[in-house]
Amino acid sequence: MDYRDLFFVDPDKTLKLKDVDPAYKGHHETAEAAAADTARYQSELMSRQSLLYAEKNHSVLIVLQALDAGGKDGTVNHVFAAFNPQGANVTGFKQPTPLELAHDFLWRVHPHAPAKGEIAIFNRSHYEDVLVTRVHKLIDKPTLTARYARIREFEKGLAEAGTTILKFFLHISKEEQLARFAERLDDPERNWKISESDYAERALWDDYTIAFEEALSATSTRHAPWFVIPANHKWFRNLAVSQIVADTMDDLHMSYPKPTVDLADIRRKYHAAEKAEKKQQTN
Amino acid sequence: MDYRDLFFVDPDKTLKLKDVDPAYKGHHETAEAAAADTARYQSELMSRQSLLYAEKNHSVLIVLQALDAGGKDGTVNHVFAAFNPQGANVTGFKQPTPLELAHDFLWRVHPHAPAKGEIAIFNRSHYEDVLVTRVHKLIDKPTLTARYARIREFEKGLAEAGTTILKFFLHISKEEQLARFAERLDDPERNWKISESDYAERALWDDYTIAFEEALSATSTRHAPWFVIPANHKWFRNLAVSQIVADTMDDLHMSYPKPTVDLADIRRKYHAAEKAEKKQQTN
Fold it and tell me: Domain Polyphosphate kinase-2-related spans what residues (chains A, B) (predicted)?
């Protein structure tokens, strides 16, 4: 099963999130059954990153969006920890600062686009500017429509410059969110993060659903696709995201560069001499 | 054995790298024997990072320097891959660009200093500006001396702002370097990196040794210590660096913040209601 086909947000169709089962598990019944496949994709991520870094022809941008407790941090820590941290950069976009707000909404994002050979992971992104701003009525309808267009153009420009873009919406049910909030309440390593606003945002669930459905449809393209990932089961989310990124990087058909020097010559000039020298020393 | 004491570069003594055995293995004879200890320190790195991120009182800056093939990349990939990539940022400093050269030598470094809650790892660093520049006679003696002072002041400022600084020189023997170069020649995933200049730099080994000895002595302080890590054995290098970072973060005595909301109140207001609602639905 190629999850790129199954979870792709087709811009020519109307996305209805209620049609996607957040508890979907594919052909694996349990985390244990999926573990070997996930490990294989993780290992592919490592080797493909090594090729990407060596070849320096492509770059990769991964965007993660979700409602609170949707699993963005978990995906970073469990899927993308497979990458060598050198060459894979995670940027978390928080509430914009006054300086950032004084610029166009892509100004703070652009500097974090990946260079050739590199992978950038956005934990939240420029999509917040068509999601949270819309739900809280900070922007009007024409601004929203204009921003969809700006995002499409921005991403097209990145793609033309050699960036492979993959965008994931981690889709959980409303019940699963509450269950995850409840887990946090009981966990002293995480309960310091809880605020009333988590619950206030939760009350806007239906507004966020509409905002996501529209934003994803308006900005999913072949060169910058959105995927709706069923994410109630963390192990399935990790499997699906790993597979989609690994398969996509595989399709780049990368190869290691040829040596720029004559290897035989280098061996003769430097290594043979050193061996002789060493031999002489030991005599 | 606290490797912080054993490998610390005492600024009041004259550092002689030939007095440090690059093949040192501590009390472990083999990689297998050290594996459990290294795994324990790695797991401590993960939990301490989580505390660092939560508390947001401290930041950590790790500097890696070594001659070619000394193991900087390997240390990033094997030791610091333990960190959650969100909140641990690796910066590789390459040959400066014309724009960077048009500024003071710390200009390109400062923006990568870690924010509170974060860890920054420098693969090469501002120390290149007192090492490679000195060996290649790009700077004169007064400039070198002035740069030592600038570095000490810069790091003092970071330390005063809550940054814990740890600097590692990965120390390998000249023979080990040649053996690692030879391995690269035979490895199609790495032989594309080989250039004649690697061997040209190798010919300057003694000049680099003097440059490192002087730079480390001139800039090792209690708040920004240098450690000379025996690095012929990669497993020992990984163990020693893991231990030093883990023990140092442990000494920060961090704790999770207290919740800012009344947890019982949150439970009552949001979770009790939801349970009742759910019960009603199932009735």
Answer: 33-251
Q: How far is CA B177 from the centre of its chain?
A: 21
B163-171 and B226-230 strand pairing: parallel
Its ipTM equals: 0.89
Spatial contact of B64 and B123, defined as CB atoms under 8 Å apart: yes
Q: Which helix or strand (DSSP H or E) is residue A227 part of?
A: strand A226-230
Contacts of B77 (CB under 8 A, 6+ apart): A84, A85, A86
Instruction: Select from A85, A192, A270 the Cβ nearest to the Cβ of B258.
Output: A192
Domain that holds residue A108: 3-282
B134 vs B129: CA distance, rounded Å: 8
Partner B, chain A 185-224, Cβ-Cβ below 8 Å: 185, 188-189, 191-196, 199, 202
Spell out the alpha helix ranges (H) of chain A.
3-7, 31-55, 72-78, 98-101, 132-135, 141-160, 174-185, 196-202, 205-219, 234-250, 263-266, 273-282
Does the distance separating the beta carbons of B178 and A271 come in below 8 Å? yes
Nearest to B138 by CA among B147, B126, B130: B130
State the nearest Cα–Cα gap between B122 and chain A, in angstroms. Answer: 10
Residue B256 is part of a domain; what is its CATH number? 3.40.50.300
Contacts of B111 in chain A (CB under 8 A): none
Angle at B32 between CA B26 and CA B37, to 5 degrees: 60
Instruction: Domain count for chain B, please give it.
Output: 1
Tens-level pLDDT at each residue, chain A (283 residues): 899 999 999 999 999 999 999 999 999 999 999 999 999 999 999 999 999 999 999 999 999 999 999 999 999 999 999 999 999 999 999 999 999 999 999 999 999 999 999 999 999 999 999 999 999 999 999 999 999 999 999 999 999 999 999 999 999 999 999 999 999 999 999 999 999 999 999 999 999 999 999 999 999 999 999 999 999 999 999 999 999 999 999 999 999 999 999 999 999 999 986 665 555 555 4
Please state, in angstroms and rounded to a whole number, the distance separating the CA atoms of residues A31 and A33: 5
Contacts of B263 in chain A (CB under 8 A): 185, 191, 194
